[in-house]
Amino acid sequence: MRVILHGDLRRFGEALEVEAKTPKEALEKLGIPLEEAWLLAVGGRMVEPHEEVEGPPDLTAIPHRAPGSAGRRGG
């Protein structure tokens, strides 16, 4: 599973490879507490932490709030 980290989670790098069947297992192996991930998605679809994902998925992990993002809007 390739884990793509965003925001505060980038301290570990932007994309990492890990052997895991569920998002929870992937984050645990990377040393990221599940509580830090606000959104987990595979292929544009939200997934539950304990949900098994098939194939070589890309797991996107987004934290509660990225630093400096409060009140900012694109456009």
Task: Explain what the structure shows.
By secondary structure, this protein is mostly beta strands. It has one domain (2-63): Roll (Ubiquitin-like (UB roll)), CATH 3.10.20.30. 9% of the residues lie in helices and 28% in strands. The chain is built from 1 helix and 5 strands. It has one helix spanning 23-29; strands spanning 2-5, 15-17, 37-42, 45-46, 58-63. A 5-stranded mixed beta sheet has the order 2-1-5-3-4, with helices on one face. The chain is globular and about 30 Å long. The protein starts with a strand and ends in a 12-residue tail after the last strand.
SS element count, helices = 1
The SS-based structural class is mainly beta
How many strands?
Answer: 5
Q: Classify the helix fraction into a percent range.
A: under 10%
Could you list the spans in which at least 5 consecutive residues all have pLDDT below 50? 71-75
Going by CATH, the homologous superfamily would be Beta-grasp domain
- What amount of the residues lies in strands? 25-35%
